[in-house]
Amino acid sequence: MTALFKMNTNILLSRRFFVINLFIILVLTILLLIFSDYYLEQNHLIIYQLSYYVDYYFESIQFIKLLVVILIVTILMHSKPLDDINNYTHASYSRVIVESSKLITFMIVVFMNLFCYFLLFEIIGIFLTPYMIFHIDHLYMLFRMLLFSLYYLLLGRGIYLYVKHYYATIGVILMYFIGSIFSEYLIPYGTENFSSMIAHFVFPDLVLYDSYQFAFVYGDLFIIVEILFLFILIQIKALHRDIV
Fold first, then answer.
1. What is the pLDDT of residue 90?
2. Are the beta carbons of 239 and 164 closer than 8 angstroms?
3. Is residue 64 within 8 Å of residue 110, measured between CB atoms?
4. Is 177 in contact with 171 (CB distance < 8 Å)?
5. Alpha carbons 65 and 206: distance in angstroms, whole number
6. 13: closest CA among 99, 74, 95?
7. pLDDT digit string (tens) for 161-202?
8. Could you tell me if 137 and 213 are in contact, meaning their C-beta atoms sit under 8 angstroms apart?
9. How does DSSP classify residue 41?
10. With bands split at pLDDT 50, 70 and 90, how would you rate the model's confidence at 25?
C-alpha cells in the first residue's frame, strides 16, 4: 500500500500540476487581499468591523470552495497516467487496495492545498486587518471544508468510473454551482426553503447562517454518511470493471 501511494504521488504531482497549484495560490492571495479591504483607513475598519469581517469571511470561503472544486477536477483529469500504470499492479494488489491508494493520494493532495488556502485566509485576516482574530469556529469551518472537499472528490471519481470519461468530471463544477445557487445567506439554521433542501440533499454546500458560522443544511453527520456511501459505490465499481 505504501509503495502504491508513493508511486501515485510521484505520478500525480507533475511539474504541470505544480505550476497550476502555484497559479491558484497566487490568484487566491490577490483576491484575499482585495476581499479584506486592508488598504482602507484602520479607524473605518474598526467602526464597521462586524460588517467587514462577515464580508471577508463569506467572500473568502465562497472563493476557496470554488478553488477546491476546480482543484479536484484538475486532479481527476490529470490522473489518467496514474490509472494506466495501476493497470499493471493488479497482479500484486487487489482492486480495492489499488483504488483506495488512489483515493488516499487524491485526498492528501486536496487536504494539503486546502490547508494552505486556510492559512492564507487566516494570515491575511489576522495580520493585515483590525477586525479579525483567530476563533475556534474557524477550525470547525476547516473541518467542514474537509468534508465538503472529500464529498466532491469522491463524487468526481465516481462519475469517472461510471461514465468512463475523464472530461465528465467537469460536471462536478456544475453540480457544485447548483448547490451554491440554492444556498441561502444569513438565515437562521433550520429555516431553509424547500428547493434549497432538495438541492443540498444531492449537491451539499456550506451555508453561512445568521450565527456567522458555515454549516451544511443537513448537518455534518449526514455528509459523512453520504461520503461513506460514495466510497462504497466507488469500490463496488472498481471491483467489477476490467480496467482501473
1. 52
2. no
3. no
4. no
5. 9
6. 74
7. 888 777 778 889 999 999 999 888 888 988 889 999 999 999
8. yes
9. -
10. very high
Q: CA triplet 146, 191, 177: central angle to 5 degrees?
A: 45
**CA-CA distance, 8 to 106, in Å (whole number)?**
9
Local structure of residue 207 (DSSP, 8 states): E
What are the start-end ranges of the H helices in 37-170? 42-47, 49-77, 80-86, 95-128, 136-163
Q: What is the pLDDT of residues 123-132, one digit of tens each?
A: 999 999 999 9
Dmax (CA) for the chain in angstroms is: 67
The answer to whether the beta carbons of residues 228 and 70 sit under 8 Å apart is no
Rounded-to-integer distance, Cα 214 and Cα 208, Å: 4
Which set of grid coordinates corresponds to residue 97?
Answer: 487496495
Helix 136-163 to helix 49-77 angle (10° resolution) is: 30
Going from the C-alpha of 4 to that of each of 23, 101, 179, the distances in angstroms are 28, 6, 35
pLDDT for 244 beyond 50:
no
Cβ neighbours of residue 194 under 8 Å, at least 6 residues apart?
none
Q: Which three cell numbers stand for residue 186?
A: 444569513
Angle between helices 95-128 and 220-239 (to 10 degrees): 150
Mean pLDDT, rounded, for 33-60: 94
2 or 147, higher pLDDT: 147
Q: How far is CA 229 from the centre of its chain?
A: 18
Instruction: Give the H or E element holding residue 202.
Output: helix 194-202
